[in-house]
Specification:
Distance between the termini: 53 Å
Radius of gyration: 18 Å
CATH topology of the largest domain: Rossmann fold
Structural class: alpha/beta
Number of strands: 9
Number of helices: 8
Largest sheet: 6 strands, mixed
Shape: globular
CATH architecture of the largest domain: 3-Layer(aba) Sandwich
CATH class of the largest domain: Alpha Beta
Length: 240
């Protein structure tokens, strides 16, 4: 039996994205390989969200190419993404997850058990009957993660998953990221929280003005940044 194809590694080769006269990403060459989470950092407007959308396959590059597991064409069957402000369906918590499972092609007979499993994974057990839109911000973000995990992705993209959340809700999301990563799912996430990047990152990618300024393992990046931009960013200075 042929082994299922993986989307990992995801490779960017001289990728640029332009919108009219504006260059959003500029000649990006980068690979996301299996392993610990990759964390994208950088000021607002640096291109983090656009890079995640490219990696997911939601948009196409203006030039260069993106490959998934060596393939230039790969339907997003093994990829999932959550955004900073996830939309909640007008259903219960369990209903949102069940809908995602149906969309992923999971048999009706298997959905109830998977809903229970996913709610436990993201810490929502006991909230299955609550309307999703009545959940707290942190709970909604965890529900969005459960929906994304319904398709059993090879890679999970997270765009600022803890923005505007309090410390307890942030810790809950970080715990889920660790649990997901321990299951062998590649996590690629963006964050403005340097502490979070240190806690979760296996490797760090610093973006500024659409370009990769520096990329290194988390330890090397924070202990010995190689560029002036990285040193300033780690020191809390603004990159203009």
């Amino acid at each position: 039996m042929r082994a299922p194809m993986s989307d990992i590694p995801i490779a960017f080769e001289a990728v640029s994205v332009r919108a009219r006269e504006v260059t959003i990403l500029d000649h990006i060459t980068l690979t996301f390989a299996a392993g610990a989470p990759s964390v994208l950092i950088g000021p607002n407007g640096s291109g983090k969200t656009t890079l995640l959308r490219l990696a997911m396959g939601l948009i196409a590059p203006s030039s260069g190419r993106v490959t998934w597991g060596g393939r230039e064409v790969s339907p997003p069957l093994h990829r999932a993404i959550t955004f900073q402000r996830p939309a909640m369906l007008r259903r219960s918590t369990a209903g949102n997850i069940s809908y995602a499972l149906a969309a992923a092609g999971v048999a009706r007979s298997a959905r109830r058990a998977r809903v229970t499993e996913l709610m436990a994974l993201v810490g929502l057990s006991g909230l299955g009957d609550r309307p999703a839109r009545r959940l707290s911000g942190g709970e909604q973000q965890r529900l969005a993660l459960a929906r994304a995990l319904a398709r059993e992705p090879d890679v999970l993209f997270l765009d600022e998953p803890t923005a505007s959340l309090d410390p307890a809700a942030t810790k809950a999301i970080e715990d889920i990221v660790r649990a997901v990563s321990a299951r062998g799912i590649k996590v690629v996430m963006s964050t403005h929280d340097l502490g979070q990047a240190k806690r979760l990152g296996g490797d760090i990618v610093l973006l500024h003005r659409g370009r990769i300024v520096e990329q290194a393992s988390a330890d090397a990046f924070f202990d010995n940044p190689q560029t002036e931009e990285a040193r300033r960013f780690c020191a809390g200075e603004l990159l203009i």
